[in-house]
Amino acid sequence: MIVTLVATVAEKLALEDRLKTNQAEIKSIEATLRALDKVAKTVREFTDQLEVCSPYLDKQVVADIRSQVQFVGQELATSRQRFATNRKEWLGIQKAESHLQRPIKDLADRWQSYASGRLSPYRELMRLVNYLPEVASSATELDQLVRSLEDQAKRPPRTQAQLEQCEGLLKTLGQRLDRVASLSIGIRAFLARVVDNQATLRDLTPEVQQWIAEGKREAAFAISFSQHRR
Predict the structure, then answer these.
(1) Origin, by domain of life (predicted)?
(2) How far apart are CA 63 and CA 60, in angstroms?
């Protein structure tokens, strides 16, 4: 009877150990699935962004980014193979996801550089003409357009619709500035000196005076003494 009792206790202890092992394994599997869901979401979003942005970026840059992503893919494939014998593979998945952050950042930086480059001429033009009467009335709206474009430039578009939205805003900004976008080099140089507080009477060339008179822009400018005394 004692032998039977000991055997029963031993069997229960063994069963308890197996249950603990199984529970630990279940927790590891759940953690692995959560890590896998997270990295899958990140990969889907990044892949969408890369496909949308690729046509507008340098081919070598895109190739380098794809190479980095391929390396992460190999890491995930290896992790999948290890999962058959190691249920704690969520650690490997998290490591692969951390490596994915580099191409994600590279794409974001490259896209921001591209988008900012397209916005730059309009931003400079805004700086020069912001106080002109034909622009001042809609300056707030134009500033909002610029800010919206700057915000969208910080994150690569994921869909064609998002890309088209950016293009639409840029087109709207260009149309709003169309009246002043064709300013001559001489007028632009004059406005730049005015904005930088460097303009003198010498800068009021016949071309500038004619442009001011034709557009009735006299009230947009003022003459004052220079603070530098000789």
Answers:
(1) Bacteria
(2) 5
